[in-house]
Amino acid sequence: MKTRQHQKLKQKTQLMNKRNTFVKYICCIILLVMCSMAYAQGSDEYFKMAKEVVKEKGNFAKAAEYCEKALDLAPLDMDIKEYLGKCYMELGRLEEARIVLLDVLQHSPRRTDARHYLINIETQTERYASAVCYVNELLEITPYSKTLWRRKINLYNLMDNRVEANREIRRLYQIFPNDPEIKQMFNNVLKEDALKMNKDGDLNNAVKQYQSALMVTKDDEEMYLNLINLYLKLGNTNEALNTADMGLYHLPGSKEIFNKKIGILQEQHRYQEAIALVQEQQKKAPSAYNSNLLIYLTAEAARYHKNSDPYVLYGQLYDRDKGNDEAHDYLLSTAISRGYYADALAILEQDLKSNPNDKNLLSKQLLVYELLGNKNGIRRTLGRLYELYPSDSDILAKYNALAFEDAKVQFTEQNYNEALPVFIRLSENPDYGKSAKNYIYSIYMAKKNYVQAMDMIEQQIRENPGEQQYILRKIDLLAAMEDYANAYEMARQYKEQYPDNPEYKYMFKDISVAYIKYLNEREGYATIRTIADELVAEDPYNLLAYNYAIGARISMGQYAEAMEMIQAALVKFPDNKEMRLKEAGVYSQMGEHEKAVAALQKLTADYPYNHDIKGSLVEEMMLQAKAYEDAGEPFQAKAVYHEVLLVKPNDTLAAIKLANIYIARQEYPEAMKVIEDSLDLNKDNPELLYKKGVIYELMGDFRRAREFQSKYVPPAHKYEEHKDHLAYLDSQLLKNQINISYLKATADSIFVHTSVATLEYLRFARRNTFIARANYAARPTGVGVQAEADWYHTFKTEFYKTAPYFIANLGFANQFFPKFKGALSLFSPVKKVYMVELGGKFARLPDDRNFITGVLGAERTFDRLWVNAKVMVMSDTEDLYNSFFAQARFYMQNEKDYVTAMTSIGTAPEDEKLEFQIDTFLTYVNTMVGAGYFHHLSHRTSFGVLGNWYNYRVNDNAYVNQYNLFLTIRTKF
Predict the structure, then answer these.
(1) How is domain 46-125 classified at the architecture level of CATH?
(2) At residue 384, does pLDDT exceed 70?
């Protein structure tokens, strides 16, 4: 007796160990699945990888792939999206780059890199006006960027708008007067204007233009020659000679200017001067040309004078008798009066050899140099006189005048270190002190020595009380020091103190704008709002002030106040296009997309040919539709997308969004019509063709789905996924499938160990699926075989996914299984989201009892979750049984593999896989839980494992546990 009990106990222990092993096996499988789902790579890591692959390899395609993966994880990270836009731009995918970067600016308007990328994109696509807009926006942020200014000028040149290009060059020169390249650009503008005026006969203004150009560039030979010719046309030979002298001063090696001067002197019969010039040139650089020219000029002079001039006779006398004072004095005075300055200088140089410190001789030499305009000679002789006679008032006055003029030249040429000591010396001179101090202040400003500049301007204010120019300069100095707060306060104080003084009003406006720009760079929007409001109060028609006041409020998110300012501005400027656009923009920021759309529609009506406004309208309508979608109002979104397509029929994004709404509602024909209408206007558009293929796939037309989706060229990071999906579509076109399954059932309290093997063949047709199945079970009492046939038929409908269908089943068996079985279930969609099952089954059990089952079930899909529940009522003609069954499937990322979980409760274990034991546990209350995992090895082959745990209450105090393990493999061919 004890031995028998011991054997039973041992048997029970073995069964318990097997059960625990099975539970551990199932738990391990579930844990592995959950771990695979939990793994994800962070968006920051992808972003870092994108930047590294560009830095190290310049691989923008790979970088774009990483950015797109990062955006899948962090769709609102504008840094990643901005970098993605850059990658698209580098890859030449300009339209995609524009869409991405505009979305970045929509969410983060202060970004500068996005605008730089958009400038490049708009330039490449020849949308120059849009590029200019982005440059203007960047100039508001960095107004002193030479690169941006030059970019803007180049854009106007590309637009062939020379007027605006020249205007921008003038403004750029005012900002950077010392930049050599900008100076050359400005000089070219002046030259072009001068040439045009000359052709039009406006000689005086042409002269002014050349003079202005020569103030900028002093080494342009062509300009000197053109200006000389203009003076000659006007009959002003003196100015022509002065211009030639200035040209030779700055271009001493210019042969053309030299010959021009010689020609003018020859025309005036001033041969001696011409000869002197050639002789001087011959000394510096001897040449046959100068020698021949000298002979020619001498011959011409001889012919002109014909030796009858007393000057010639006295010259001959003086050559013979150097001590003849009469000849000496006549020759010197006549040479000076006639302009024979070379002769006069020769006589004076000879005299100064014997009397080098003679005041009279030095004064006459100075006079000759002054008449010649020889600055070096004047400087040298006057310096000698000042050295010898520093107390002579006339000499001192001339010396100071020359020093002051030389210092001004040095200042103009930015030689501040040479000019500053001279101005400091003259700052106490009553004649030059005030001007000298002005130059000293300007030098300190140019050198950014703001402390010294402040000391100087304070001194000038003390010495010149009431002179507003010094007050204005101090305000400018404070602004240059970026002490805008004090500059603004000082300007406001003097404006209020002198309300009738227009200069203070202008300064207040200018410094307010400068202060606002300064604050804009530092995001000091609260102060900007205050300053801009004061400007508006000061001048209610100051449109710029309104823009700053509105912009500050927008930046602070004070959209309601911004809208109040916009409405106030529109009262003053009702037809201002930019203000009306701003109104629409603020409505959009406030989320009032309907008002924004209405405002833009009015603008479109007023400006029907303005593509930018029409584009803004389309963008806002797209935002409105998206807001409706986010709010769960697809009908309103659908209506807006239809309106977008009326405004812009070829808008592919609106067409795709609209089609997506129809797809979500499973209205596939409507979605297909939208896509085909858009394809009529956007032939061979890859996105539209791909969407058409998706719709065909949803409608179950896998052949056409494969045809259209294969035309799509995905992004690099989506290539493998797309290739895999095409393989999936190929698998859906296969007509045959084989399934092999194995079921193992064991129990803990009673001796139940049984297995069933199954072989299935499936044949797929358009709306039909035919299945032949054979079940095999071997027992100690023999072998049981069951043959079954299934027929799945889908009723014809345009909505493939929601079409009603039925399943019919018929089976026969020799033993163990029901001798005969038949079943029919009808599945019908309800409200497009539910599928309801109504069916019945009949089985002739091995003991010849009839077993009838009624089935009522429902299922629904939520994204990647599928749930199903069934209620079954069964009868063996004597008793009624019931069972409730529920299961769920969670599909993995690839939307094919899934984890399943199930449960049931009832008085009969109604499970088609357990038909061989329907009568084994009939009438026992049972519960069941189960879980499994089905994995696709490929699109053609899949493998599944499923475990169930049944618990049967055989009496009030006794329970039996049964464990089932189901394995299956399926393949298509």
Answers:
(1) Alpha Horseshoe (1.25)
(2) yes
